[in-house]
Amino acid sequence: MQIKVGARTDVGMVRSGNEDNFFVEADSTRGIFVVADGMGGHAAGEVASEMAVQIVARGLLPLQSVDADGAPATVARALMDANRAIYERMMAEVDKQGMGTTISVLVMSDSGYLIGQIGDSRIYLLRDGALRQITKDHSYVQEQVDAGLLTPEQARYHPYSNVITRCAGASAAVEADIYSGATQPGDVFLVASDGLTGMVDDRRLQQLLLARTGPGRIVDMLISDANSRGGLDNITAIVVQVDRLEESADA
User: Fold this and answer.
1) What is d(CA 231, CA 234) in angstroms, rounded to the nearest whole number?
2) 1: how many CB neighbours lie within 10 A of its CB?
3) CATH of the domain at 136
4) Left, alpha or beta for 165 (phi > 0: left; psi -120 to 50: alpha)?
5) How far apart, in whole angstroms, are the C-alpha atoms of residue 223 and residue 234?
6) What pLDDT, in 10s, does the model give residues 116-130?
């Protein structure tokens, strides 16, 4: 597997601190990419998101392929371990009351991808020029869209658009969504906090991801675009470009 990766986090234009965290680790056999968006106040949010990326990464580093026995369960267990640790710390420390975090994780190998998600940080796939949001937000407005009470455009500008219905650390147990699929040469994945996706709509994301440049430059353009539109939240983006897969090369 040959991939190129760009990743960066930015405080944005309004916040005084950055409660986002991310993790990137990739080699020729697999890649692990995590974005966590903390909440609960400056110090607590930073703690929750940092714990999330560290615990999830530690749980997934031994995983060498998405086809490994029990790989989906391994992803889910890593998210559950993070949730439990954050919840226990939140309950034990007075200054951490109310803290939590989103977690979105992408695991890639030659045979495909696995995704685990809690919250409203998103993972997109750009394939053959078309952009698709793979994950579904755990949010109030997404529930309203699913019920037919809001259109996606109305949800985008709704006053409760930042209210999430599921996060890591809020309760002793939480359910993670797991997604899987095949990977193709030319695919581009985006893992991002809502500081990006809340400011930059999908059409503009598609335009930027289609740019004929490296992933680091694309990440810079994404963050710059979000900041130019107000930068109301912390912004984190990981862009993964798939250049080559071993199966396709053998074929």
Assistant:
1) 7
2) 22
3) 3.60.40.10
4) alpha
5) 10
6) 999 999 999 999 999
What token pair was written down for 157? 């500008």
In the chain, % helix, strand, coil (3-state, to 5) comes to 35, 30, 35
- Three-state DSSP at 137 gives coil
β-strands 103-109, 30-39 pairing: antiparallel
DSSP secondary structure code for residue 139 in this structure? B
Q: By the 8 A CB rule, do 54 and 60 touch?
A: no
Tokens standing for residue 69: 């026995």
Q: Convert the pLDDT of each residue in 165-212 to its tens digit.
A: 999 999 999 999 999 999 999 999 999 999 999 999 999 999 999 999
- pTM of the complete model beyond 0.90: yes
Start-to-end CA distance of the chain, whole Å, equals: 14
Residue 54: burial class (beta carbons within 10 Å; 0-12, 13-18, 19+): middle
Query: Rg of the chain over CA atoms, in angstroms?
Result: 17
**Rounded-to-integer distance, Cα 238 and Cα 26, Å:** 12
**What are the E-state strand segments in the chain?**
2-10, 20-26, 30-39, 100-101, 103-109, 112-118, 122-127, 130-133, 177-181, 188-192, 235-244
State the burial class of residue 240 (Cβ atoms within 10 Å of its Cβ: 0-12, 13-18, 19+): buried
Domain containing residue 134: 2-250
Q: Is 225 helix (H, G, I), strand (E, B) or coil?
A: helix
**Tally of structural domains, the chain:** 1
* Residue 190 · residue 205 · CB < 8 Å: yes
Give the model confidence (pLDDT) of 53-107 as tens digits. Answer: 999 999 999 999 999 999 999 999 999 999 999 999 999 999 999 999 999 999 9
